Amino acid sequence: MHTDAALKIAITTGEPAGVGPELTLLALAHALLVEPPIWPDVYFTVLGDSPLLEMRAKVVGVDWLALLATGRIALRHEALSAPVTAGQLNAANSRYVLALLDVAIAGALAKSFDAIVTAPLQKSVINEAGIPFTGHTEYLAVRTGTEQVVMMLAGQPNARAESAALTTSITSTSTQHRYHPFKSSCRPGQAFRVALATTHLPLKEVAAALTTDKLISTLRIMDAHLRRDFGIKKPRILVTGLNPHAGEQGHLGREEIEIIIPALEYVQGLGIDARGPYPADTLFQPRYLDQADCVLAMYHDQGLPVLKYATFGTGINVTLGLPIIRTSVDHGTALDLAGTGRADPASLLEAIDAAVTMARYRRFPESNLGISV
Ligand SMILES: NC(=O)C1=CN([C@@H]2O[C@H](COP(=O)(O)OP(=O)(O)OC[C@H]3O[C@@H](n4cnc5c(N)ncnc54)[C@H](O)[C@@H]3O)[C@@H](O)[C@H]2O)C=CC1
Ligand SMILES: NCC(=O)COP(=O)(O)O
Fold this sequence. Notes:
By secondary structure, this protein is α/β, with parallel strands linked by helices. The chain has helices at 20-32, 50-60, 64-69, 94-109, 123-128, 136-143, 160-169, 206-209, 212-228, 255-269, 280-283, 286-289, 300-311, 346-363; strands at residues 7-12, 42-48, 73-77, 115-118, 150-155, 192-196, 236-240, 273-278, 294-297, 316-320, 326-329. Strand 10 and strand 11 form a beta hairpin. The protein is globular and about 60 Å long. The chain starts with 6 loop residues before the first strand and ends in a 10-residue tail after the last helix.
């Protein structure tokens, strides 16, 4: 039975041919079919097609009825438009994928959900259905009427070993759980966080998309969220340059001088501890990262490969700047693994844990000790 104090989290199961449905089941089984359960005060609404979830539960060995019997999961059934074969995309189901998101977003805006957690979707197949779509991040901004959002990924570089142990234990509904996703021993300074000044756009459009105003608002959003959701009193943000060697004093590009440095000077005047621009090829080393709370990279493949090299499979993605809480996994649809039970739910567990923690902090700000990723 829900109480007013209980947190309510919506999980969208994403692309039906991908790993999202089975990872949702595996993550919830791992959290709820154990003793003691993880997140005892949290209720989940799973958004997806009911027969699909039942079928994937069988395939990956999760007892779906036992999960429902916990009383902590409500299924919000949305019907698929076409039958699904794991690993095979079908543009006919693109509207279904977006309908899951729309229901979750509307519920979060109406405060029926404290947070939404999204399993991965396939951006290409939505476009193939004739719907312009670049990602959850941009879609969430539009659907919530938010002018600017910031994509930030975060992870613990040392979490990989723990995740390996998880894969072998996850299908078991035994009372032991070997993996606790909330790594409370990890203080904010030990986490690796990378935010992006631009998100999903062709590389040739990146330079034109960077403006001083956009960087200023990006840094302001980051500073505010790192304080509020991550419990960091005075966040330090290190900002990359755009060009090789941060422009080599203007000889290899002028965006640093004309766009990035003016933005840094402006936000420093507001009391934000943002520094740079640093050459991206040498910034990602302990000497810099140990003194920082987050890196702001100028584009997707400047920052994320480094973060994913260190944390892939156990990291999270958070959309900053929204009026609602949204977290997600650090990986995609993994079509090659869909329906095999071999995909690792560790990142989804982390994403749920981060959503729970953020939601709890927003409800009870005095308890904010900092999210652990
Ligand atoms: N939040 C989201 O909805 C995201 C969606 N995507 C989308 O996913 C699609 C596929 O992207 P790719 O670049 O192929 O990346 P991917 O992450 O789906 O796959 C890359 C490699 O990592 C493996 N992998 C991914 N998740 C795994 C897991 N949980 N356990 C074990 N191995 C895993 C895959 O098997 C594959 O070998 C694209 O359409 C992309 O846009 C990508 C990232 C995030
Ligand atoms: N590589 C991260 C990514 O593509 C996240 O996309 P989305 O969360 O905006 O769908």
